[in-house]
Design brief:
Blueprint (H helix, E strand, L loop, with lengths): L29 H15 L3 E7 L1 H4 L9 E7 L5 H17 L6 E7 H4 L8 H8 E6 L13 H8 L2 H14 L4 H27 L6 H11 L4 H12 L5 H23 L8
Parallel strand pairs: 2-3
Antiparallel strand pairs: 1-2, 1-4
Helix pairs in contact: 1-3, 6-8, 7-8, 7-11, 8-9, 8-10, 8-11, 9-10
């Protein structure tokens, strides 16, 4: 009798496990996490439903001086312009006070949106599987369990065709300097690798957030595209500001990936603006 093979990131029943925890936060980042929790509570008060960490810090893979701090904030009610101003001030303070982080990024959403039916297999999955509770209510208990199937693939990254024009606009509008292009290279590299991975995720039947593993899984099914995806994974960790990289993303790899994604999984269901 053949033994069942369980891919990384899944539990014994084949559901995606929550990938991070506060116990995995490296010691160097614990003061940052503590300060973020206190400042978020003070800043939003009763408007705060819950706060979460995601990314390399709660996975335990962050590197001091190179990794950023990623936060998600769930609010009672839709985010306002004041909420965004408060968030920007908090991000700037954390980045200034703690040299072990290289920037802070915060997602702001209402509790209602995170639990809504249209977001069930996108933001809902993100909270349930990729976010680590920091304070307040943990919405994962109100969400289903998730398998690495075609529905999840479509609803997470089936909108690349819509995002590519925005990427071109950001490239055109950026200053013509290495420093200005580097964050764009990192962002677009990571997005393309993650999209490439979710393209093959149902066949690979597992989950990982490691860019190298993602590129490797993609290359198993698209060996002719493996090299540029491996390069994108490397640039997602250590970005350069080479304009040729950005040109190849929006002119070659991105359009091909968008077309193949639509062919295999279809297009992400439209969201209200």
């Amino acid at each position: 009798m053949a033994e069942t093979v369980h891919r990384p990131g899944l539990d014994a029943q084949g559901y995606i496990r929550r990938e991070g925890s506060l116990a995995r936060v490296p010691p160097a980042f614990r003061p940052v996490v503590h300060a973020a929790r206190e400042r978020l509570t003070d800043a939003f008060g009763t408007r705060l439903n819950g706060a979460y960490l995601y990314g390399s810090v709660p996975r335990g893979t962050a590197h001091a001086g190179r990794s950023d701090l990623d936060l998600l904030v769930a609010l009672h009610g839709d985010p306002t312009s004041r909420d965004r101003d408060v968030t920007r001030a908090l991000e700037e303070w954390l980045d200034r006070e703690f040299p072990q982080i290289d920037g802070v990024g915060t997602l702001l959403h209402s509790r209602e949106r995170l639990l809504s039916e249209p977001e069930r297999h996108d933001l809902g999955w993100f909270v349930s599987c990729l976010c680590t509770p920091l304070s307040g209510e943990d919405l994962a208990g109100l969400l289903p369990r998730y398998r690495p199937d075609g529905l999840l693939a479509r609803e997470t990254n089936g909108d690349l065709a819509l995002l590519l024009p925005r990427g071109r606009e950001r490239i055109t509008g950026a200053d013509d300097t290495e420093e200005a292009r580097r964050p764009l290279v990192r962002f677009m590299s990571r997005h393309l690798v993650r999209t490439g991975f979710t393209l093959v995720m149902p066949r690979w039947n597992g989950w990982t957030s490691d860019l190298t593993e993602m590129a490797g899984a993609f290359g198993m099914y698209y060996p002719e595209r493996a090299a540029p995806m491996r390069s994108a994974a490397a640039l997602g960790r250590e970005p350069s500001g080479d304009p040729a990289v950005l040109a190849s993303y929006v002119g070659e790899l991105g359009p091909w990936l968008s077309g193949e994604y639509t062919r295999v999984h279809g297009v992400k269901a439209p969201r209200a603006q």
